[in-house]
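pls design
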């Protein structure tokens, strides 16, 4: 068997296009564009790249992008004051504070200050709680993107065995909640799990969100499993190269011979994250204006 490649890049491009169409309709109805504010504190190079690509993607989707770049030594009071202004600004539908924040800033306090109805990253405890009890709120972008790829591929997930490796608040836990909501039988594995290969072998669906290059081996997988690889890891450079290859948490080449479908790295889950961020921002805009976005639109 050779696994089908789940093309997250193509799926994300289509989602962004649909978001762009609905965003144009929103602008006509509301008399303004949907707006996303992104706050970057400091000069972390990876964060700068993310913020730049979010800015470009937001504009390309017919939405307004408000960038706020603050120096690394910004005080927590100043950052909270900016968040309060954005909460109160009717042109801003979604607020994203780029993580990680410099060490002197309390991430939980800052995320907790964002209005839950503008928390398009879905990291606020109110949104985590809404997801846990099945109320509509905002779901973190990466796991929601994984879920879109899974339902597109498998349709109904009822009764399937799903194993999520990793229990972070931004990927593993919300991923498990979404799978549970879709009636899968869900196991969350983590760094203290005993006999991880045996746990993974039960799974019809494996979601790997660990951050360890090629940790999940082909022999761990059940025949025909669907594999979603969230991990992004850079290998050490080959002799003569200045950068190593990007790989996921799954041994991709090996898994291709066992799985029925798998997301590549890069080009799988990664591109979904920004597309879902735009989707969440548009949903926020429709809600903020009291306009109706068809339930299955995006
Ligand atoms: P994290 O470090 O917060 O969490 C990692 C999790 O892996 C922990 O819950 C830990 O218990 C578990 N773990 C660690 N070692 C383990 C082991 N040996 N066996 C089993 N479980 C183990 O990471 P995160 O923020 O959830 O991100 C995970 C990975 O996903 C990273 O590679 C990150 O770069 C990537 N990521 C990708 C996207 C995307 O857009 N594609 C978004 C977010 C994160």
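designed seq:
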């Amino acid at each position: 068997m050779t696994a089908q490649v789940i093309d997250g890049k193509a799926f994300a491009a289509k989602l962004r296009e649909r978001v762009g169409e609905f965003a144009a309709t929103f602008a006509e109805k509301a008399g303004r564009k949907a707006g996303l504010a992104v706050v970057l504190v400091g000069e972390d190079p990876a964060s700068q790249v993310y913020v730049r690509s979010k800015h470009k993607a937001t504009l390309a989707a017919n939405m307004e992008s408000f960038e706020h770049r603050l120096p690394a030594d910004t005080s927590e009071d100043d950052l909270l004051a900016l968040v309060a202004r954005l909460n109160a600004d009717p042109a801003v539908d979604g607020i994203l504070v780029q993580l990680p924040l410099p060490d002197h800033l309390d991430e939980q306090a800052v995320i907790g200050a964002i209005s839950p109805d503008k928390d398009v990253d879905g990291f606020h405890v109110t949104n985590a709680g809404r997801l846990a009890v099945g109320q509509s709120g905002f779901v973190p972008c990466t796991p929601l993107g994984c879920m879109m790829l899974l339902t597109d591929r498998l349709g109904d997930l009822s009764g399937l065995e799903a194993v999520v490796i990793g229990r972070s608040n931004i990927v593993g836990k919300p991923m498990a909640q979404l799978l549970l909501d879709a009636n899968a039988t869900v196991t969350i594995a983590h760094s203290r799990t005993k006999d991880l290969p045996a746990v993974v072998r039960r799974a019809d669906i494996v979601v790997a969100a660990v951050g360890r290059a090629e940790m999940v081996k082909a022999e761990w997988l059940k025949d025909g499993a669907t594999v979603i690889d969230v991990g992004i890891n850079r290998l050490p450079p080959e002799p003569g190269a200045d950068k190593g290859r990007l790989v996921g948490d799954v041994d991709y080449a090996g898994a291709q011979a066992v799985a029925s479908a798998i997301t590549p790295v890069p080009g799988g889950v990664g591109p979904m994250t920004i597309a879902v961020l735009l989707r969440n921002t548009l949903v926020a805009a429709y809600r903020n204006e009291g306009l109706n976005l068809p339930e299955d639109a995006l």
